[in-house]
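Lay summary. Proteins are chains of building blocks that fold into shapes, and those shapes determine what they do. In this project we predict the shape from the chain. Here is one chain we studied, written as its sequence of building blocks.
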Amino acid sequence: MDNIENKVDWRSIKTTDFRDENADGDEDRIRKKHAEFLVKDYVPANFIKRIAVLNQTKKEQVEAIIEALNLIIEVKIKTEFYFL
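And here is the predicted shape, written in a compact code that computers can read:
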């Protein structure tokens, strides 16, 4: 089975350059940045390694849900993933 991490466009996820004519020529970036990564009912929870959240409050809420479901998933605060 292919690793999903190899199929995700990490450059588009990490960049803050949303122009159509960006430095690396990815004219489709703005569409990708607006797309949601919807996985419910498609990806088993045991395939999820990490969840990124905006702040400590959300981290605690997500960790409570994970604990209630008896899952082991790392939760990281990644403010750079969000548009503020």
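What the prediction tells us: The chain has a mean pLDDT of 80.
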